[in-house]
Amino acid sequence: MAVLKRKHPAPGPPVDEEGAYTTLATADHALADGRWHQISATVTTRGDDRVRIARP
Question: pTM value?
Answer without folding.
Answer: 0.50
